[in-house]
Amino acid sequence: MQTRVLAFSDNAIAEAARLILEGEPVAVPTETVYGLAANAMNAQAVARIYEAKGRPSFNPLIVHVPDLDAAQKIGVIEGEALDLAERCWPGPLTLVVPLRERTGISSIVTAGLNTIGIRVPSHPAMQALLRSTNHPLAAPSANASSAISPTRAEHVLKSLGGRIPLIIDGGRTERGVESTIVAATGGALRLLRPGPIEVEAERASGETIEAPGQLASHYAPSKPLRLEADNAAEDEFLIGFGELDGDVSLSPSGDLVEAAASLFDLLHQADASERARIAVAPVPDQGLGVAINDRLRRAAA
């Protein structure tokens, strides 16, 4: 299969919508990372996502919709979850909520669970695609399963080139880290995955797979990765942070927002270097640093 790359435009969205309605997955930028989108109501189309990514079948997919009204049609969003949705959507928040009956959402999307992960993205490309297809779109990150998440179209092409028909190029993504995932399935809110939005919620145990990003080893480069490094060995590519310089830096000024936006870009760069191993400087485990360290720990697992 030849993979085309088209710059984000009305014509590109029209072509992407045509492919999705024909049952193909298409890579498209969101404000977090690039997503691999397919019609969530077409089981074969969603299966092509799993096929392209080599994704474990027990790891459910996030469904993207254009607005809260559309989200309410497929999931039960009420109470604290509704407050969160009204405050944070459109944006990098995924809510795992009870799945409504007879929604048309394929069971392959939820991995057979009676809950569903829903997000209302803010990126204009994904919003345009949602409105052009007029369907909810299942869209995990557009990379081979367990590989580094893509923040540029070229990352997608390197990982999935030849496996998917089209990539919409919207430049580097703004956030650079996947969405915060919060479960609202009864009782207190539970944080399943930290991300760009900080939420007051209990931290889930992680013993049960309820959402993407909960596998112990995830977002992994092909080389060994050492964390909390204050120097680099001769065969290590060092990713610095703050006052600790490296071959590259997540943020020379110690800005966690800049670090999050740069994280996967720099992991890709380190993975492509001639050195055999990767080392990463300490990042404060607070605020957005919690999400960054979560990704790094999974990458090093």
Describe this structure in words.
By secondary structure, the chain is of the alpha/beta class. It has a nine-stranded mixed beta sheet with strand order 2-3-7-4-6-5-9-10-11, sandwiched between helices. It has a four-stranded parallel beta sheet with strand order 12-15-13-14, covered by helices on one side. The protein has two domains: 4-203, DHBP synthase, CATH 3.90.870.10; 225-300, Rossmann fold. It has helices at residues 10-21, 43-53, 68-74, 80-88, 107-110, 124-133, 153-160, 256-272, 288-300; strands at residues 4-7, 26-29, 34-39, 62-64, 93-98, 115-119, 137-138, 166-169, 180-183, 190-193, 202-203, 225-226, 236-240, 248-249, 277-280. Helices cover 30% and strands 19% of the residues. It has nine helices and 15 strands. The chain is globular, with a radius of gyration of 18 Å. The mean pLDDT is 92. 51% of the residues are buried. A hairpin with a 4-residue loop joins β2 and β3 (34-39).
Determine the strand fraction and express it as a percent band. Answer: 15-25%
Distance between the termini: 33 Å
If strands are numbered along the chain, what order do they take across the biggest sheet?
Answer: 2-3-7-4-6-5-9-10-11
Q: Assign the CATH architecture of the largest domain.
A: Alpha-Beta Complex
